[in-house]
């Protein structure tokens, strides 16, 4: 049986390849993203897009074109979903989901969970609209890999409930600081989530994102069995090796 693979494309964009060979993109910023190696900007296929919020480093400003090109199923919070519908995206491609809900598709269970991060959608270079709160996702795959994608967020106490209910085996956490958790907050999130495998993201791309994996490793050195997978853009984590 094939195992789940997680590829860090760059900044905050990830690709999950399921055991059944389906391709899931989390936070699709693919066009004009200087942090993604050129060879990964044009994906051979996208079966599912998961959007955590509408900031343009997570929600491509050409996302409608991407959806038209790949015809994936799309899951997003209700504000981003209605934006896509208003922009003419086929409603048959969009799977409605809200906080606390779970949907099964493509042999994956997708749950939408809280995140604490204020967001909007850029309409032009000088105009924003569609204010909303961000969200995270839990992916439960057929090989029993359970991934918590926190999205952009601060730390919050209900991460303990996420651990208790969904029992993630891998947590994908922002560590850049300023706009999200930094390494200090992420180190406490790891303890609440009780995970042994962590993929940091949203750091080292812009000058003001100063958090580092090295600092996170230092702050969690007392957690027995923990591995911080500091993937470079384009690198892949084979979950069969965990």
UniProtKB/TrEMBL annotation:
Residues 10-202 form the Metallo-beta-lactamase domain. InterPro entries: Metallo-B-lactamas, RibonucZ/Hydroxyglut_hydro, UPF0173_UPF0282_UlaG_hydrolase. SMART domains: Lactamase_B. Gene3D superfamilies: Ribonuclease Z/Hydroxyacylglutathione hydrolase-like. This is L-ascorbate metabolism protein UlaG, beta-lactamase superfamily. It comes from Solitalea koreensis.
């Amino acid at each position: 049986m094939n195992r789940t693979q997680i590829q860090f494309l760059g900044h905050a964009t990830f690709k999950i390849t399921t055991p059944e060979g389906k391709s899931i993109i989390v936070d699709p910023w693919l066009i004009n993203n200087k942090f993604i190696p050129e060879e990964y900007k044009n994906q051979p296929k996208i079966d599912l897009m998961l959007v955590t919020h509408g900031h343009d480093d997570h929600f491509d400003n050409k996302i409608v074109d991407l959806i038209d090109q790949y015809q994936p199923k799309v899951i997003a919070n209700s504000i981003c979903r209605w934006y896509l519908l208003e922009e003419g995206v086929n409603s048959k491609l969009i799977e409605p989901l809200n906080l606390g809900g779970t949907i099964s598709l493509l042999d994956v269970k997708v749950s939408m969970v809280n995140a604490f991060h204020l967001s909007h959608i850029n309409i032009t270079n000088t105009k924003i609209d569609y204010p909303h709160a961000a969200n995270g996702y839990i992916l439960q795959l057929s090989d029993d890999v359970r991934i918590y994608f926190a999205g952009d967020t601060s730390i919050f106490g209900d991460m303990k409930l996420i651990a208790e209910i969904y029992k993630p085996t891998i947590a994908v956490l922002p560590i850049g600081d300023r706009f999200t958790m930094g390494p200090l907050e992420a180190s406490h999130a790891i303890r609440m989530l009780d995970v042994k495998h962590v993929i940091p993201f949203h750091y080292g791309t812009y000058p003001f994102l100063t958090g580092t994996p090295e600092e996170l490793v230092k702050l969690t050195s007392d957690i027995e069995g923990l591995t911080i997978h500091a993937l470079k853009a384009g690198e892949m984590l084979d979950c069969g090796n965990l």
